[in-house]
């Protein structure tokens, strides 16, 4: 009998060891799986609103077809979280209607949102909202971990609701001692559209065994939100939206408080914590009289030292406060340079002065050399992009701060920046003394860098301790958009009038070729009501205004208008056509625009062209004369602005017109860039 007992014990021990080994092996497999998660981009539907997603920053994939007006969008550039995420992405230009990946980041609520029409989506205006978001291209940033699964403000993900409608959950038991009292504050005029009283089930008395029944907790919730998250999962079907969309319901995980077990909420009362989300101090939309896109290029080299670097940061904070940052006014980003440049944050990262000042305080010094030229090149190539918040309609300004002098050359990088339409300002602090000038890599570097050498774009500060005195002077200059000469480029600053020969000798087929040439030239320019504008006149013995400078202000509309021009046929009175263009087109040109006339003809004029050409030159109209086939070259040279070799062209056949598009554009830009810089 004793032998049998020993045998049984041995069997039990052997079985226990087998089970233990199996469990350990299983746990290792689980651990291995947990350590190697695969990031998958979660997909959302077109109707998903940003406010329903708890995650503060995430990458998602939008489906096709989200351009539909039923997916409402509120705001421009910065969107209220009540907006469709994918609809906002299309409105901002990050996506088109075919869908794709986007990066979404939550930002603070705004005091107002302005609607606009963009990219086929009409966004709506909204007085204020508790939370906002911005969208950019769906390229994950290095070092940032994005969720593979989104956490929603209700238990069901909008992307997968099909099977969950029939599932019933049991509320996990919660210990009685964890319930905390909540202070309720009455809001005058608040109403509830749902039941008169809402109550939560009482906690289960079996508080000692909670661990076995608790579900996995969602990623991203703070400790104060866990009970509310659990509650919202099981009671979300019982809640009704309130009349005021700015007041959150009980099942919102953003309300960072616990509702006590059995607590009742009567209509007209909301928790104090909820009320605080609405009573935010109104945020400014920015100063509309200073609508610029501004990059501060700051010196983070080792030579500056920690103390002076702090002074530089305080200067930036003071400028940010004085500018009144906001979506309707100036936007500001910062690039720091040492050996190499690095963007601290872009134009869209912080949309008000308060947030910007907080971010500036957190900037740490890079160290290294003072390679300002490399930093300017970085700004030109990378910073002023649409993805980084460049609005296109606002002048681009870069303020470069240099301690002493740069350790590389800035002239070439600055010239490229100017030709790209960036207004370069230089602030030189504690510049080189006479004895130190021998060490300066590039003498007179600030004059070689700026748009004009008249002192407007350069500030020389004798001491770091005097830097604060230049805040108002700098703000006044960067906001003086009429004097920001470098915002004007050869492609965005002209009123261009095409004067087109429609005489019988041209013929229908060749006339269509001429119109294609006009369209190809127009494509090269930045067209809008504040940039380059296009008009056209057709002439024979008579003249006809096809469209004026104010008729169309988008490139697509201009190209369509050119297509619709009909061939007229008749004689050739080029002199009368020049006079007509001066009266009907260029008389309505804006004072700050360059006036360019591009005349295309295939023969000698029946009338005199000399006096009309002189009048055009006298009125400041730069005339390019393009002759085809039987055109008289001597007449082209009379019509063209001096020097004629740069403003007149002869083409032997209509089919070769397209070859002259690059040459005409090159000459227009060469002439623009050769203007004096003082």
TrEMBL record:
Domain LCCL: 40-133
Keyword Secreted (UniProt): yes
Annotated source species: Panthera leo
Its biological purpose: Promotes matrix assembly and cell adhesiveness. Plays a role in spinal cord formation by regulating the proliferation and differentiation of neural stem cells.
Signal peptide: 1-26
Gene symbol of the encoding locus: VIT
Native organism taxonomy: Eukaryota, Metazoa, Chordata, Craniata, Vertebrata
UniProt name for this protein: Vitrin
Main location group: secreted
Gene Ontology biological process terms, A to Z: extracellular matrix organization; nervous system development; positive regulation of cell-substrate adhesion
InterPro entries for this protein: ECM_Assembly_Org, LCCL, LCCL_sf, VWF_A, vWFA_dom_sf
Alphabetical list of PANTHER family matching this protein: COLLAGEN ALPHA, VITRIN
Record CDD domains: vWA_collagen
Subunit structure: Binds dermatan sulfate and chondroitin sulfate.
Superkingdom of source: Eukaryota
Gene3D superfamilies according to UniProt: LCCL-like domain (2.170.130.20), von Willebrand factor, type A domain (3.40.50.410)
Domain VWFA positions: 293-478, 495-664
GO CC annotations on file: interstitial matrix
Keywords: Disulfide bond, Extracellular matrix, Glycoprotein, Neurogenesis, Repeat, Secreted, Signal
Low complexity: compositionally biased ranges: 182-198, 205-216
Subcellular location as annotated: Secreted, Extracellular space, Extracellular matrix
Entry annotated with the keyword RNA-binding: no
Region (Disordered), start-end ranges: 150-220, 233-253
């Amino acid at each position: 009998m004793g032998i049998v007992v020993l045998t049984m014990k041995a069997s039990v021990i052997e079985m226990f060891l087998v089970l233990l080994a199996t469990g350990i092996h299983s746990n290792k497999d689980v651990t291995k799986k947990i350590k190697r998660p695969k990031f998958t981009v979660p997909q959302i539907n077109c109707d998903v609103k940003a406010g329903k997603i708890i995650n503060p920053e995430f990458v998602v994939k939008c489906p096709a077809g989200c351009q539909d007006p039923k997916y409402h969008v509120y705001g421009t550039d910065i969107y209220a979280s009540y907006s469709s995420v994918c609809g906002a992405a299309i409105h901002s230009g990050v996506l088109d209607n075919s869908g794709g990946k986007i990066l979404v980041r939550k930002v603070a609520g705004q005091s107002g949102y302005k609607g606009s029409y963009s990219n086929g989506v009409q966004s709506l205006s909204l007085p204020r909202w508790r939370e906002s978001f911005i969208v950019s291209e769906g390229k994950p940033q290095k070092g940032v971990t994005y969720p593979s699964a989104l956490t929603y403000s209700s238990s069901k993900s909008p992307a997968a609701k099909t099977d969950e409608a029939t599932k019933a959950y049991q509320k996990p038991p919660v210990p009685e001692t964890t319930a905390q009292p909540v202070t309720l504050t009455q809001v005058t005029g608040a109403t509830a559209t749902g039941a008169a009283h809402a109550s939560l089930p009482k906690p289960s008395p079996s508080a000692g065994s909670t661990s076995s029944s608790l579900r996995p907790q969602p990623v991203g919730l703070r400790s104060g939100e866990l009970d509310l998250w659990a509650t919202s999962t099981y009671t979300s079907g019982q809640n009704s939206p309130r009349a005021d969309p700015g007041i959150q319901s009980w099942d919102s995980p953003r309300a960072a408080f616990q509702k006590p077990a059995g607590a009742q909420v009567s209509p007209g009362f909301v928790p104090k914590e909820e009320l605080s989300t609405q009573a935010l101090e109104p945020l400014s939309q920015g100063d509309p009289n200073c609508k610029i896109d501004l990059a501060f290029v700051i010196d983070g080299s080792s030579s500056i030292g920690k103390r002076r670097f702090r002074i530089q940061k305080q200067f930036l904070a003071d400028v940010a406060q004085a500018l009144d940052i906001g979506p309707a006014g100036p936007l500001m980003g910062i690039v720091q340079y040492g050996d190499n440049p690095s963007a601290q944050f872009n134009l869209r990262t912080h949309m008000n002065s308060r947030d910007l000042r907080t971010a500036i305080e957190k900037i740490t010094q890079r160290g290294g050399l003072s390679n300002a030229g490399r930093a300017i090149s970085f700004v030109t190539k990378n910073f002023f992009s649409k993805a980084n918040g460049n609005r296109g309609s606002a002048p681009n300004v870069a303020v470069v701060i240099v301690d002493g002098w740069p350790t590389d050359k800035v002239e070439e990088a600055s010239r490229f920046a100017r030709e790209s339409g960036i207004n370069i300002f230089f602030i030189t602090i504690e510049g080189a003394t006479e004895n130190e000038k021998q060490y300066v890599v590039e003498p007179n570097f600030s004059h070689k860098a700026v748009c004009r050498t008249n002192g407007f774009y350069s500030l020389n500060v004798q001491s770091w301790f005097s830097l604060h005195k230049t805040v108002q002077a700098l703000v006044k200059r960067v906001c003086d958009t009429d004097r920001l000469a470098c915002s004007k480029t050869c492609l965005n600053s002209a009123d261009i009038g095409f004067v087109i020969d429609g005489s019988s000798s041209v013929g229908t087929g060749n006339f269509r070729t001429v119109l294609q040439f006009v369209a190809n030239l127009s494509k090269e320019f930045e067209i809008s009501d504040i940039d380059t504008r296009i008009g056209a006149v057709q002439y024979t013995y008579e003249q006809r205004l096809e469209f004026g400078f104010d008729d169309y202000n988008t490139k697509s509309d201009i190209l369509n208008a050119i297509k619709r021009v009909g061939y007229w046929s008749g004689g050739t009175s080029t002199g009368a056509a020049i006079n007509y263009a001066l009266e009907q087109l260029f008389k309505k040109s804006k004072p700050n625009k360059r006036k360019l006339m591009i005349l295309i003809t295939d023969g000698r004029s029946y009338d005199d062209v000399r006096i009309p050409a002189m009048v055009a030159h006298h009125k400041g109209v730069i005339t390019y004369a393009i002759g085809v086939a039987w055109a008289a070259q001597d007449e082209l040279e009379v019509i063209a602005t001096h020097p004629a070799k740069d403003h007149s062209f002869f083409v032997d056949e209509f089919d070769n017109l397209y070859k002259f598009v690059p040459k005409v554009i090159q000459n227009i830009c060469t002439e623009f860039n050769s203007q004096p810089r003082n």
